[in-house]
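Z., the sequence and structure:
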Amino acid sequence: MRRTTALASSVAVVAVLSAALTGCAASPDDVDACEPVLAPGNASSLVTVKGDVGSAPRVTIPTPLVSTEAQRTVIDEGEGLVAHVGMTVDFDAAVYDAATGDLINETAFDGTQAVRYRAGLETTDQQEQPTSVAQALVCAQPGQRIVLTTTAADTGLNVGTAADSSLVFVIDVQDVFLGKADGVNQLPQDGLPVVVTAPDGTVGITVPSGVKPPTDYRTANIKLGSGAKLAEGDLAVIQLASWSWPTGEGADVTEKSSTWNIGRTPNTLELAREGEMALPEELLDALIGLPVGSQLLAVVPPAEGTDEATVFVIDVVGIQSAPVAK
């Protein structure tokens, strides 16, 4: 199984932010309102799974099992936030050869964060495709255990079997996060960029012509969420994009980086003041107390000897409960 790059991405995010700062819809909990993409079928219903959710499953497969189309059966119900299309899901998974019942691969099932997908859509070769694994996550809830039967080709994964071979996945859902900031729009502040958001959550900015960047660090809440409030030490799940403030007459805004363009899954960022993952004080202070669902704009003034200011837009989409694997 592919392991999430959240930890590595977090290090990169901290590095980017630190470098820049140096020198200067239905209710999301309403499962009845969510329509699964995949339905139970003869194949998925034949798989027996024992053991507690979150621990390595004990699986019995009547071999040879054939699944020509993706099927999804919920073994154990979850509770909490419901994963609608485009939302993010962390999960453990075990993959089996349906013909032999042999285990092909599995995550650790040790309580640490394992795999991160967007429900309904998974990015493969920089293209979003409705892979069967991502489709199985639509309507998932934390604590849920799902059996997915599918062909290898429909997963978008290379598991070492023929494309038309049948596979069995046992998926234990750890966390579900928002797909984008969903808070209430706040009044804009003078002298700061305007944030624009596409329907899928992708963000951009516009900077009024001739407006110079602030000389001091500035933050503004673009959207104010209604979820749990971030606290120091939390593992904040964020989407992050950054741009260079345009300099010179007629200059364009230049995007520096964006999680919306790289896999489109959010990063995990530890809200720490010390250690490898320590955040710049200004950013940490702006994030602490911010409710999930909020969108934060931060402008970092030019460092000494430069004329380039950096603009960040951060969507706070959740608080990760599973610790990051060391």
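The chain has two domains: 6-24+180-319, 31-176. The domain at 6-24+180-319 is CATH 3.10.50.40 (Chitinase A; domain 3).

Let me know what you think.
H.
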